[in-house]
Amino acid sequence: xxxxxxxxxxxxxxxxxxFEPAELMAIAAERGLxxxxxxxxxxxxxxxxxxxxxTKLGVRLVQGIEISTHYKGAGLHLLAYWDGFxxxxxxxxxxxxxxLEGRRVRLQRMADALxxxxxxxxxxEVLRTANGAVTRSHIAKQLVAQGAARTIQEVxxxxxxxxxxxxxxxxxxxxxxxxARVRSEGGLPVVAHPGSQKLTHEDLxxxxxxxxxxxxxxxxxxxxxxxxxxxxxCRELGLVPTGGSxxxxxxxxxxxxxxxxxxxxxxxxxxxALASAS
Length: 278
Fold this sequence. Notes:
This protein is an alpha/beta fold. It folds into two domains: 6-89 and 175-277, TIM Barrel, CATH 3.20.20.140; 95-160, DNA polymerase, domain 1, CATH 1.10.150. 44% of the residues lie in helices and 15% in strands. A seven-stranded mixed sheet has the order 1-2-3-4-5-6-7. β6 (214-218), α9 and β7 (240-243) form a beta-alpha-beta unit. The chain is globular, with a radius of gyration of 18 Å. The model has no long low-confidence stretch (mean pLDDT 93).
């Protein structure tokens, strides 16, 4: 297997990505990827379309998702993977729908906060363009489209960044609760870009004991020293090293199929853990 044949973390238009699920599979095939996972926020809405396209193109798609949780008072993103499609319970589907509704409620609250600052947000247009999980990126794009700001970064800096006057925090879901839920559904939970949360070896030990199965070592935000440190933790704690580009399809960001560096050994370890979890 050639280096760069897997990418286990990227997003489509069903959350905050720029490309349709089928388009992403075509790009993956063009770049020689053999194993991929579409990991949209809080939804599997794009998985069916992606899998149909992937099957035709000879790319193996793993069902995945990214969910925001909280750990030690801060946000922590979890990736979850399944060996198979549509195996989740009705209870899990209801949980995800509640998460999506929470995002819609958050959108309205942020729109109300913006209105108090003299900024009008077209909520209906945000919902139309989001076509799935509503994120702050959708809000920022809409405000730029309306002419309220010149760039997405300006919107975050002025209004909706974590310290901004129109910021509304997302639901605080304890990571331990999500780890247990994913495990009960036969999924493999993996912590996303742990370097951004500055997770320590002991943090990973605690999370492993709560059900964590892997660590996203290879990520565009991780320098070599960070990858080396988390690889050592994986070996010592019995966790699976994974990786992905976290590509959203935007210019200037990591490209699909880059920023992961999965070896053949790491890929096999991931696939074995995936099968074992199910």
